[in-house]
Design goal:
This protein is mainly beta and 194 residues long. It is built from two helices and 15 strands.
Length: 194
Amino acid sequence: MSTEILTFSPAFGLKESIHYNTLIFQADSGREKRRDKWSDGIRTLECSLHEENEAAIDAIWDFFRARKGKYDTFWVKFPTNKNKVVTAESVGTGDGIETVFALDYFPIDVSSVVVYLDGVETEDVTPSNDLTNEIAKLTFSSPPAGGVAITADYEYYIQARFSEDIFSREKIAYALYNASINLVEVLWNTYSAP
């Protein structure tokens, strides 16, 4: 599992869809029984280019080669998608003892995190991604005082992989200009997005 980040510029058109896997059993009477095979849906992310951009094609080509097609995972964040931005998440309440608090989403863009204590921005905190336990954390250098409300704004990533193992450079260019290149979400072992 890689923590490399595939960064998109506004020159890309980005779409997100979700796929579920449902088994439907139909009895002779016509009644149905359904079973959900997956506990979470899996997103497909489609990227395309709005205009000719050789630098963008080179970046996707190099990134595809470095990931060895669909072998290695990576993180992706859509800069144009407000759904990947968390605003004023209630992280917890200070008790004068606890210094570590968990965020709802994982993994996070640590450079995007802004933390507030009772509505006042603080820099007395270090955001991090704990890859072993699959959780994003805020660690304060001194514990927030008792009764102090802790909130945070931040952006988060989706873990993904390429949907194909074979690409020619021409196919990447064609797909980016005329169709799209598909990325598939890779679910974490324990973490499940809320």
